[in-house]
Structures are given as C-alpha cells and as structure tokens.
Sequence to fold (253 residues):
Amino acid sequence: MQWQNWLNSQQQAVSSLEPLAGLTACSHLVTTNSQQRYVLRSQTARATDFGIDYQQEVQFLNLIAPLGFSPSVAYYDQYSSLLNWIEGTPPSKFNHQLIEQLANLVANLHLFDLQAVANLEQFTKLNLAERCQFLWNKLSSEQQATLGFQPPFLAISPFKQAICHHDIHLANLIQKNDKLFLIDWEYCAISDPALDLTMLVYSKQLTQIQMDYFLKHYFAKTGFDRTACMAKVEEYLPEVDKLNRLWFSLQAI
Fold:
C-alpha cells in the first residue's frame, strides 16, 4: 500500500490499525511506532457507491486549511489519504459557548471567498436533486417501493454558493485548548449554505432554543438575509428528508 510506503519513508511503522466509527466503514485510525496518529481514508467501492470522493476531501481540506479548524492532510494518492489526527476531546453536549463557537466556525466556512479560488470548476458541487437521483439508482426496485416517494426530485435554486460541510453534528466536533475543530469532511462540496443549515436543523442535534441561539450568531457573523435564507431552509427540508431516507436505505444493503 502506497500510504504505508510513505510512512516508511518518514521512518514510521504502523503499530496498529483500528476501524473508526462511521456508517460508510471506510476510515481507520493508524497509530505508528512513534505514537503519531492518522485517519486513513480508503477509496473503496462502498465509498464510491455513496458518492464519496476522498481526493475531493483532500482538495477541500487543503483549500480551507488557512481557516484553521479542519484536519490537515499528511499524504494522499488516488486510492487513499492520511489526515493528521486532531488530539482533543469530543464534546458530550451543546452549551452556549460551544454553540457560539460552532456558529462562528460555520459562518467563516460559508464566507470563504470562492472568487479567489483558482480552478474552482475542479471542486465538487452538490446538486441535491441529482444526489437523490444518484442514490435512488443504487437501490433495488423492492427498496425503492418501500420509500413512499419516487423521482423526479425537486430542483431548488440556491440561496447562495459556498463551501459546505453537510454533516455537522456533535460527533464531528473536537475541542482542544478552547478551540473548536470540525472533522469528517467526506461530504464537503460547493453548495448552498442554506442546505448546510437545513441538514443541521434536520439532525435535531439542537433544541429550538439552541438553534435560535446558533442562528442569531450565524447571521450576525455572515450578514446573510435571515428571512430569505430560512425560507430556503423550509424549502429544502422535505428533500433532505428524502436524501436521508435514501442514504440509510443504501447503507442497509
């Protein structure tokens, strides 16, 4: 494996390889004999079936590295990547301080200047209707029949375009020295920040009071039109429900 050859070239040998929690089962924790730790991403057939491209994850991580809240890339090739493990503590619950930190982090991500990005066309763009159709086509006719909906999927015009994470939840947060990090960028793409917010709302990770607190700080930081953005969130919610049900149907195969 090329990633192991790279580690050897860095005078590091693998001492353990452990699967990491995750429904796609494509990630492992690599620990070396010098106690250096990495997240190993493997471009398996299963990852591809879910529309995951780990080379794109690497490109996005390198792009947003100046923001300082994502894992850094140690190594990558066409089959795999090694991300530096972030030593820290996963938060056990949301509180006001964490919510405010998260709102500022997400706002900074959504404010990243796409106009300054060279070769922007090389980065993945998420079209929600196309992603739903992609997952639908992976299912058997029997599975499709159990879902209670069918194509065509609604095409929604975006509120704005931004770099979006698409999987923001408590388990993907790490706290270290009063700083917040966001991990697991495998679904990152250029899409609508309103869609990113919709996925957070849909996850029900935050109570309504907590969500209002998050949105207060998020819109204060971004300066986005709250009324227009939240109207778009309401438009996205039924389609995100379909996406979620399609994803879990595929995961069950």
Observations:
- The chain has a mean pLDDT of 95.
- The longest helix spans residues 226-251.
- The CA atoms of residues 19 and 25 lie 7 Å apart.
- The domain at 96-251 is CATH 3.90.1200.10 (Aminoglycoside 3'-phosphotransferase; Chain: A, domain 2).
